[in-house]
Write a structure and sequence with these properties.
- With 446 residues, the protein is α/β, with parallel strands linked by helices.
- The chain has helices spanning 12-24, 35-44, 61-71, 86-94, 110-138, 148-161, 177-186, 205-213, 230-233, 249-261, 287-293, 298-304, 321-335, 345-353, 359-373, 386-389, 403-417, 422-429, 433-442, and strands at 4-8, 28-32, 49-53, 55-56, 59-60, 76-81, 99-102, 167-170, 195-199, 238-242, 263-265, 272-274, 278-283, 307-310, 342-343, 378-379.
- The strands form 5 sheets. The protein has a 5-stranded parallel sheet, with helices on both faces. It has a 5-stranded parallel sheet with strand order 9-10-13-8-14. It has a two-stranded antiparallel ribbon with strand order 4-5.
- A hairpin with a 6-residue loop joins strand 11 (263-265) and strand 12.
- Helix 6 (148-161) runs parallel beside helix 7 (177-186), helix 13 crosses helix 15 and helix 17 packs across helix 18 (422-429).
- The protein is globular, with a radius of gyration of 29 Å.
- It starts with a strand and ends with a helix.
- InterPro entries: AAA+_ATPase, AAA_lid_NorR, CheY-like_superfamily, Homeodomain-like_sf, HTH_Fis, P-loop_NTPase, Sig_transdc_resp-reg_receiver, Sigma_54_int.
- It comes from Spirosoma liriopis.
- The modification 4-aspartylphosphate is found at residue 53.
- This is Sigma-54 dependent transcriptional regulator.
Length: 446
Amino acid sequence: MPGTILIIDDEPKLRQLLARILTLEDYQVLEADDVRSGLRTLERTEVQLVISDVKLPDGNGIDLTAQVKKMQPATEVIVLTAYGTIADGVKAIKNGAFDYITKGDDNDKIIPLVSRAIEKAELQFRIKRLEEQVQQKYGFEKIIGHSKAIQQAVDLARRVAVTDTTVLLTGETGTGKEVFAQAIHQASPRRTGSFVAVNCSALGKEILESELFGHRAGAFTGAARDKKGLFEEANKGTIFLDEIGEMALDLQAKLLRVLETHEFMRVGDTKPTKTDVRVVAATNRDLKHDAESGLFRSDLYYRLSVFSIELPPLRDRRDDIPALAQVLTQQEAAKIGKRQMSLSPAFMEALTRYNWKGNIRELKNVIERAVILSDGQTLLPEYLPLDVQSPSNSSSTPFSYDLTSVEKNHIEQVLRHTNGNKAEAARLLGIGLSTLYRKIEEYRLG
C-alpha cells in the first residue's frame, strides 16, 4: 500500500486539487482545514505524511511540524507556503520537516518529493514496529508475575534501566537473570546498540579472555588474525556477564580496569582500546562472602554492586506459578505443533506444591517434558516427574538448609533425570560443562 497522507490547508480548492492528484497516485488521502482538526485526525489514524500550509486559521504549519513529530515521530511533514522565506525554511527543517516548498513553483516536483517522504516514513514505521516487537519479546512486559517479590525486583530494574549504572543481578540458578538483563537493556538509552551475553563459567580462562577482549594476530598459537572481543562488539550497547563469580582473579582485574577507565587491552596488543559499554553482571553465588574470603576481588565486587537486584526464587512467589505454567505450556506446545493446551487442576496443584530448586528453568523443563508426553489437550499429573508428583516435595516438608547439601542433591537429581548425560545436565542446571565436572568431582558424584 503506497501510504496515507494528511493534507492540512484552509483553501478548499487547492486542498482538493492536491488530494485528487495524490489519489490518482494510489495514496490514501485525508483532509483537514485547520491545525485542530488535523491533530484530531493524527490522534486516531497512523499517517505516513502530512502536507501542511504555513498559514492556517488557528496556527501555522511550521509550528505544527514539531507537534506532528511529537505525536508520530515516524511521520514526515512537507510544508507548503505561498511566500517562502529562508528563515521559515530553516525553522521548518529544524522542527523536523522533510522539506519546505513554495506553492506553484514545484508542481513537477511534488509527486517525486511525496514518494521520497513516504519511503522514508515507511522505513521509520518498520523500524518502530520492529522495536515494539523486540520490546514485547525482551522487555519488562515479558516478565510474568504479580507477586510482591517479583514486582519489587521489576520496579528496581525499571528505575536503574534508564541510567548507565552497572547492575549486579543476584539469585539462585534459573530465576531469570538473563531475562532481566535483556529487559534492562531494552528499557535503556542503549537499546539500539547490541546486547551481548557471555557465560563466564562456560569457557576456560584463556578462551574467556580472548572472547571478552579480543586478540592480535600471533598473540598465541592459532591466532592467525586479529579478532574483536565481546567488549568491542557491545560498544554503545550492553554486555551481560553471567556467572561472574566463576571468573578467574586475573581476568577480574582486567574487568575492573574496563569499568574504571572504559578501555582494555587485547591479548597480544600494546595499545589500549576504548569502549563505551554498560555492564550487567549476574551470579548465583554470595559474592560478598567470596570477596571477604579472597575468592573474588573485593574492589571489583564493590564496583559491580553499585546497584544490586536480588531475584526471588520461585518458591517465594508461588502465586506466579499458574501464570508462568500457562505461558510456558503454550510456548512448548507451539514448538512441536500442538494446539492450545490446558492444565488440569491436579497438575497445577502439583506444580504449586513443588519446591522448584531449579526455579523457572526447572519449571520450563518439566512443562516441556509434560507437553511431549501428553496424548490429549490436557496436561495430567502422570506426565510429571515422580519427584514433582510426590507430596513429599511440598513446601511444608523439612529440607536441609545447608547450601552444599542442597546443591549436591540437586545435581544428583538432574543427573538422574538426564540418565547421566552431563552435557544435558549442565544445560538444565544453567552452568558450564567444566563447572559441572568440577562439582561432580567436588561432591564425589562420579
